[in-house]
Here is the input.
Amino acid sequence: MENSFEAVIVANGDFPVHKVPLGILSGVPHIIACDGAIIHVPQAEAVVGDGDSVPAECHDRLIQIDEQEDNDLTKATRYCLAQGWHKIAYVGATGKREDHTLGNISLLMRYYRDLGIEGTMFTDYGFFTPAHGNRTFNAFRGQQVSIFNFGCTDIKSEGLRWHSYAYAQWWQGTLNEALADRFTLRADGYYLVYQTYE
Here is the structure.
């Protein structure tokens, strides 16, 4: 997978063990940790959060933001934006608590739609990409693909085993499959795509 990200934000969920997110981490110019996640990436150039779980030896890199309206993932994303970075990979944002996992995944769409972030969230099993309108995705034959609708009234697909539509429920767009090395979605709004690793 091509690594064109300007920064990686490491959240304090399950730290990845899969080679894809670890490869992303090893190949980006900037690593930002969310609060306690600094223990997994001691090389991070900044730690963003309220500082309640940051080791004392890392306080020289702490960007302390005490407001509680946004979570640490959003605070770290705003920090990256302030540096001029828009292509951001997210790792460690899933696992542990399911409510945090769902919240963090849904934030990808907020960052894309409201902040202009070209973000991708990587887990140990695959990756989430927010999109809008017509888009072609690189894939591989047999790749498992899920599509989550964020307000589209029309979604059509080319190159997937089952034809897509404007799913009313999130579960309806799960468990599709790529037929070749790419697929195309044509939609009139926003949607989130999940793809598994090879």
Q: What stands out?
A: Helices lie at 19-26, 72-82, 98-115. The chain has two domains: 7-124, 130-196. Residues 87 and 155 are 25 Å apart (CA to CA).
